[in-house]
Automatic annotation (TrEMBL):
UniProt record, GO biological process: chromatin remodeling; methylation; regulation of DNA-templated transcription
InterPro entries named among the record's database cross-references: Arg_MeTrfase, PRMT_dom, SAM-dependent_MTases_sf
Protein name, UniProt field: Protein arginine N-methyltransferase 1
GO CC annotations, alphabetized: nucleus
Alphabetical keyword list: Methyltransferase, Nucleus, S-adenosyl-L-methionine, Transferase
Organism: Zostera marina (Eelgrass)
Primary location: nucleus
Gene3D superfamilies in the cross-refs: Hnrnp arginine n-methyltransferase1, Vaccinia Virus protein VP39
Domain of life: Eukaryota
Compartments, as annotated in UniProt: Nucleus
């Protein structure tokens, strides 16, 4: 099976010409128009502009301002490529649009806080269905473009774009009725934006207010992946006749964000953790969950795979989406944790263990993962602990 890794974020590249910058700006405006057309046509948009060599043009190049933060996290969201990818993720964007458009009664005459607004697409959806006012908070330079987008669409009197960290801002109101955010990262928790959402909830959301989405669940399964593991991991054993296994050890510790073919799945899928965003504390982003993966066929296991679902339970009917390998692909893809050893497994045999997750102590936006597992099958027995770092 051939797969290509794409981590979604685009680093700063070489200086682009004015024509290139204007071209990328036009692309972004076109993408916003594409999303607006979704409601009328219901068509799913798949484009290839993300492959453009101009993908690394940043907002700084357009707004003419210098970066005020060295933090890569916010810098990465100043580039159009990641916003283009998210807007064209129709599973993501269309779900949010449906949640808002099909539940207008929730938003009518309500004050809304959009945390991590990006281009402002969710704020525009909310304003479109009659929100009294929307406060769109965005820390990156994209906030300047979001203001322009809001003005271009005639919502300047309804949407206020606030540039800065959520934790540092003071809203011009005492509370909001609805908090909406697309906070999920790879492996659900990568980038740790959830802590910011929880801060905003506790600081600004009125008692009994609505948070969207309000539920998120993390799952685990096991896959056969011999070809890809050999290409990406075992490659380091012999590189043009030289031993580079020291790199292999490091590469094993880096989870792979990629799309997994559902035919690779060889066990059941195990629920690891469900988070109630309306009630949970920030400390609950660190957890240890047990699992038991039972083989559904005779095969080999090369890796465990994590994915997540999110739900909007306050709607008139349950709505949400999954990032699992049996669902339509999203820009989150799945997170692959390769095992040091290959497990030879037979139908009915079980891999038993636990997965521990916590923010990295040095950089809380990174995620540290500890996998403990044991397998005692007819043809293979092993007990092991492996460490992974998402960064």
């Amino acid at each position: 099976m051939m797969r290509r890794k794409n981590n979604g974020k685009v680093g700063a590249g070489s200086t682009s010409s004015n024509s290139e910058v204007e071209s990328r700006k036009e692309y972004l405006v076109e993408d916003m128009n594409i999303v607006k057309e979704m409601e009328r046509s219901g068509e799913e948009v798949v484009g290839d502009r993300a492959e453009s060599s101009n993908m690394d043009v940043s907002v700084d190049a357009i707004v003419g301002s210098e970066k005020t933060s060295a933090d890569y996290y916010f810098d990465s969201y100043s580039h159009f490529g990641i916003h283009e990818e998210m807007l064209k993720d129709t599973v993501r964007t269309k779900t949010y649009q449906n949640v808002i458009y099909q539940n207008k009664f929730l938003f009518k005459d309500k004050i809304v806080l959009d945390v991590g607004a990006g281009t402002g697409i969710l704020s525009l959806f909310c304003a479109h269905v009659g929100a009294k006012h929307v406060y769109a908070v965005e820390c990156s330079q994209m906030a300047d473009v979001a203001k322009e987008i809001v003005e271009a669409n005639g919502y300047s009197n309804v949407i206020t774009v606030l540039k800065g960290k959520m934790e540092d801002l003071v809203l011009p109101v005492t509370h909001v009725d609805i908090l909406i955010s697309e906070w999920m990262g790879y492996f659900l928790l990568f980038e740790n934006m959830l802590d910011t959402v929880l801060y905003a909830r506790d600081k600004w959301l009125v008692d009994g207010g609505i948070i969207l989405p309000d539920k998120a669940s993390l799952y685990l399964t096991a896959i056969e992946d011999a070809e890809y593991k050999d290409d990406k991991i075992e490659f380091w054993n012999d590189v043009y006749g030289f031993d580079m296994r020291c790199i292999k050890k490091q590469s094993m510790m880096e989870p792979l964000v990629d799309t997994v073919d559902q035919n690779q799945i060889v066990t059941n899928c195990q629920l690891l953790k469900t988070m109630d965003i309306s009630k949970m504390s920030s400390g609950e982003t660190s957890f240890t969950s047990p699992f038991k993966l039972i083989a559904t066929r005779n095969d080999y296991v090369h890796a465990l795979v994590a994915y997540f679902d999110v739900s909007f339970t306050k709607c008139h009917k349950l709505m949400g989406f999954s990032t699992g390998p049996r669902s339509k692909a999203t820009h989150w893809k799945q997170t692959v944790l390769y095992l040091d050893d290959v497990l030879t497994i037979s139908e009915g045999e079980a891999i038993i263990g636990s997965l521990s997750v916590e923010p990295n102590k040095t950089n809380p936006r990174d995620v540290d993962i500890v996998l403990n597992y044991s397998f005692h099958g007819e043809r293979c027995q092993i007990s092991k602990t492996q460490y992974y770092k998402m960064r």
